[in-house]
Amino acid sequence: MATALDLPGGHDLTDTELAARAVEKWGSGTPGRLLGDFALAVWFGDERRLLLAGDAMGMRTVYYWRGCDRLLFATSLRDLLALPGVPREVDEVFVADHLAMNYGDDEATFYRSIRKVRPGTCVLMTADADECRVFHQFDPDRRIKLGTDQDYVDRARELLDQAVADRMRGETVAIMGSGGLDSACLAVSARRHAPSVPFLTAVPEPGLPLAPGDGIADERPYVEALAAAFPGLRPEFLPPHPEADWTPENWALTSAGAAPYRMATHITWLNGPARRAVALGATSYLTGAVGNLSLTWDGLRGLPTLLRQGHWFRLARELALTSRGHPRRMASLAWHSLVRPFLGAKRFSELDLLPACGLSEETLRRFGMAERLRQRGNDPSFLLSPDSRRFRIAAICRNRSRRPDGMNSLRSFQGIGNSAPLADLRLVEFCLAIPEDQYLRDGTTRWLSRRLLRTAGVPAMITENRRRGYQHPEWFAHLSRMRPTLPDQLERLRRSPTASRLIDLDRLERVLAKWPENAVAAEADRVGLQVMLQEALHVGAYIAWVEGTN
Predict the structure, then answer these.
(1) Does the pLDDT of residue 381 top 70, yes or no?
(2) 156 - beta bridge partners?
(3) Closest listed residue to residue 252, CA positions, set 413, 407, 486
(4) Which of 245, 364, 374, 432 could form a disulfide with 369 if both were Cys (CB 3.0 to 4.6 A apart)?
């Protein structure tokens, strides 16, 4: 940025000072020139115009409300709602979309009268009108072709290092990490820019039964191996606080962001590392968010491309090697990656949404939720798209519009900033444009990131691992701890006009009446308990909170 602005000593300027210089040079075209996470507000006094903008990946945004005689804006819903006169009426359709996971890349918020600046756009405002301008769009047809396989690794490493360095600039950072590839990428790069970096890992609360399955419940051995290979990483393993609030309502998180948070109990589980980062003096922590759509993409959705291009031998080889010769795995992979995507859109109705969604059937039909999902590309045919690049772009855009709500909630709730280097736009666009075979080769998924980490000296225990970590594996024990309070939470929702109209409270009551005996039995109904029940109670509590603050 300093070079583009012709500022020889510009590297000593703060980000705010650089942004101000950028506005002086490029005016309303500034948002398209900025990199990283930003929310921007500029007043052009001579023209009496206000410019609001948010970055292309949705890490920051600006919320605004226009009244009859004034315009108010802030970078968080909580701060905007604290201003006098801003209405708090809940947008029921938006709440329904949230519970149905029908995320859209638009300007809507949980509040009917409050808008947000959509990622990758800016809004130019005058006294009479708003003009929305798009300054960034992903190009699914862009291609990058380098000379050798190693060239892709080298370029990815350069972009990763730049993304991490930029987010460490002017900050004291910690890494919110695990034993996975995303966290390892952050660690090897951060160590190049700082002699010592805290690496904070959430682990299960001792003594509680864990969810069954193949996932890694405690990633301590992987983190210890990483720290042994990279002196200067300072690992700490932090279980949840014994007095943590596991109620699905989670009033503290709700009031911090003035909005519900998806999978709020996961945030409670991860709160120990965040609080420890604050205690260590960190001003921000790094996470691996968006990595699975960029640097650590698994490449499996590239298989339909081999089918379309007639590369039959290579396709058969990848299927065999990826499934390790296991017939059942090979059949499952062939069905989900090759057959199902080409069968066309699957017809579904509102009834298909009920198992994972706490909305009442009447609400789903009243809002035409099945059609709303189809219109936004969130129907089953989207999830099975045979075009890898378009799928990833759609997934990025689908998630980024809700990301600011969650990021702002975390910053307020945890008292510390957060950033995601693997969501750096330069790195994401590179990863979208390179050949698909850089991610899946000879049965090895996530081939690009595995090679990058091997070259950096990361132990094979991590680079060759194909198992996933299990976030919050003792979830049922924590939920059961709160079981005696759940009927009271449900009764509070019955007294809420809006919550009782939107949410199927009778169905939630039936779930409470059929409580599983243990963690093994609970895992069989994980969607109904951890997703449907807890999400509905959390969103209902948010609605009741808004009604109470009104």
Answers:
(1) no
(2) none
(3) 413
(4) 364
176 SS3 class: strand
* Tokens matching residue 389: 């690049």
Asked if 393 and 136 count as a contact pair (C-beta separation under 8 A), the reply is no
d(CA 262, CA 379): 19
* Structure tokens belonging to residue 420: 């995601």
DSSP codes of every residue in 367-395: TTHHHHHHHHT-SHHHHT-S-HHHHHHHH
The answer to whether domain 149-296+395-463 has CATH 3.40.50.620 is: yes
Which residue(s) pair with 201 in the sheet? 237
Question: Kind and range of the H or E element at 541?
Answer: helix 534-549
Q: How far apart are CA 503 and CA 156, in angstroms?
A: 46
Output the 3-class SS for 409-476.
HHHHHHCCEEECHHHCHHHHHHHHHCCHHHCCECCECCHHHHHHHHHHCCCHHHHCCCCCECCCCCHH
Binding-site positions read 15
Cβ neighbours of 374 (radius 10 Å): 18
Q: How many Å apart are CA 303 and CA 312, to the nearest integer? A: 10
Query: Could you tell me the CA-to-CA distances from 272 to 164, 265, 534 in Å, in that order?
Result: 23, 12, 21
| Topology classification of domain 10-134 | Glutamine Phosphoribosylpyrophosphate, subunit 1, domain 1 (3.60.20)
What one-character DSSP code corresponds to residue 89?
-
Q: Residue written as tokens 């300072």?
A: 234
Given a contact cutoff of 8 angstroms between Cβ atoms, the answer to whether 40 and 51 are in contact is yes
**pLDDT, tens only, 394-434:** 999 988 888 888 888 889 999 999 999 999 999 999 999 99
Report the amino acid identity of residue 85: G
pLDDT beyond 90 at 345: no
User: DSSP string of 115-126?
Assistant: EEPPTTEEEEE-
Q: What is the DSSP code string of 310-367?
A: T-HHHHHHHHHHHTTT-HHHHHHHHIIIIIGGGG-PPP--GGGGGGG--B-HHHHHHT
The SS3 assignment for 482 reads: coil
500 within 8 A of 539, measured Cβ to Cβ: no
Residue 532 tokens, joined: 């449907």
Q: Where are the domains of the chain?
A: 10-134, 149-296+395-463, 475-549
Residue 56, amino acid: A
DSSP letter at 295 equals T
- CA–CA separation, 76 and 367 (whole Å): 28
Question: 272-281: per-residue pLDDT in tens?
Answer: 999 999 999 9
Lowest mean pLDDT among 240-254, 438-452, 464-478, 496-510: 240-254
Q: Which residues of 268-288 are buried (b: 16+ CB within 10 A; e: fewer)?
A: bbbbbbbbbbeeeebebbbbb
Binding site members for L-glutamine: 15
Phi, psi for 469 (deg, rounded to 5): -75, 150
The residues facing 503 across adjacent strands are 359
